[in-house]
Each structure stands twice: as structure tokens, then as C-alpha cells.
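Dig into what follows:
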Amino acid sequence: MAPPSRWNLAAARMRPFTRAILGATEGHDVLVGRVRYRHRGWNGERADAAVDARRALDELELLAGAVRVVLVGHSMGGRAALAVAGHDLVRGVVGLAPWCPVGEPVEQLADRRVVLVHGDRDRTTDPLGSRDVARRARSAGADACAVLMSGGDHAMLRRAGEWHTLTTGLVSGLLGLAPLPGPVRRAFEEGRDPATSD
């Protein structure tokens, strides 16, 4: 229940992603924001991270109106993004090494585009959880796939540039500013997960 530290490593790790997305969307009418969690953990049924993400979406809607939103979240932030994807503004989700517990709900992902990117060396969250969520989300009516990043770890430090490039390509593609990366586009067309990202 404690607030996150000012020196929160997970939040710091997302700053390069924010900068990369800002660079990739420069010149377009795109607003990039970050959610700051009030509490450190998910906290069971309270789902504090999802509550904060939903509050941020509601505030965004009040400020900007009916804009198209693509959520990007890492680990617990990925779980929060998936949990609130049913919000009217959300068009897509990019989950980076998301925490996907067994049996996590997917009905809210219907009519959304969801890409879960997971390193095959992740020892914190299970890449198989991402694959399971993507598979079940497809059954629930989402365009969804899980991309396995060969050699990738949970902190996304190994092959960091490739994580950033893929994420910016996904965000740009999900917003309709550029084509989706080829393997993801084909995965959506074929209703399957793409091959490992090499």
C-alpha cells in the first residue's frame, strides 16, 4: 500500500519507451502521457494499478474528448493496461513482459488490438501467460498475438533498442499512423502468434 519510490526502477525503465514513442509520433496530433500509481502493488482484488489506469483514462476523456488510445504497459503495468482495455477510448494495448496470471479475464479485449511482447529469458513473468492471454483474447473477439523476443529479459535491457523499435512500430501501427510491423500484421490476418522476433 506504500506509494512507489521516487526512484522506482520500473518507471525509470519506461522513460526511454516514452521518448521513443514521442519521437516516432512527432508531427502527428498525438498526446503521450504516463500513469503514476498511487500504491506499489496490485493489492489483490483492489487492483490498484488498474484503478489508477482507469482514472487516468477518465481524466483524459474529460480533457481531450473521444480520442483513440493505445495503452503501453510493462509487467504489472501491462496487466493494468489489459484490465482497462474495455474503456471506450482504448483501441489497442501493447503489453511488454506483462504479468498475466492464469485465468486473467479477457472479455474486455473484444474488438481491441492487443500485442503482448515477451522475452524468452524472462524469469519474472511467464511468457506462456502472454501466449495464453493472446489465444483467449482471440477467442473473445480481439485481434491479439504474443511476440516472443529471442534473448529478451524482463527488464528489457537485453536488445533494448529492438524493444523500443518494436514498441514504437506497434504504437504507430495501432494508431493508424504507419503500417503495423509485418509479422504482427500477418498474425492478425491469420489469427495466430507470429514467429519469434529474432
